[in-house]
Amino acid sequence: MKTILTVDDSPSMRQMLAYVLTSNGYTVIEAEDGEQALELAKTNLADLVLTDQNMPRLDGIGLIKALRSLPGYKTVPIMMLTTESSQALKQQGREAGATGWMVKPFDPEKLLEMLKRVLAQPSAQ
User: Fold this and answer.
1) What are the CA-CA distances from residue 24 to residues 62, 74, 88 (Å)?
2) What SS3 state is found at 69?
3) Residue 74's Cα: distance from chain center in Å?
4) What structural domains and CATH numbers belong to the chain?
5) Residues 6+ apart with CB under 8 A from 25
6) How far apart are CA 118 and CA 78, in angstroms?
7) What is the pLDDT of residues 100-118, one digit of tens each?
8) Nearest C-alpha neighbor of 6 from the set 64, 61, 53, 50
9) pTM of the prediction?
């Protein structure tokens, strides 16, 4: 069973993600911001990270940079799930090490398809 670390400062978004993911067989670890996610990542190796961009304490791009510096997270897929859609921010995300980008509000089916595709890649093992 694959474990997904979800990072979002919105309780309702975390709840919706947890529902969609757990009902499709994923284990979910939730964090309410980048700082909490980083702490959780140090003791839990997730198969994939799904993070928002705009959060207090540590934003999504800051989190990606921090996660990429941890030995266990060098190749773990990190997806941005955010209301932000600017090309400049997407470029910053790619440079930081984001694997992909999905804009909110999201379609649960599309999200699940994207996760399956990303988790099936050899580097995601």
Assistant:
1) 29, 26, 33
2) coil
3) 14
4) 3-120 (3.40.50.2300)
5) 1, 2
6) 9
7) 999 999 999 999 999 999 9
8) 50
9) 0.94
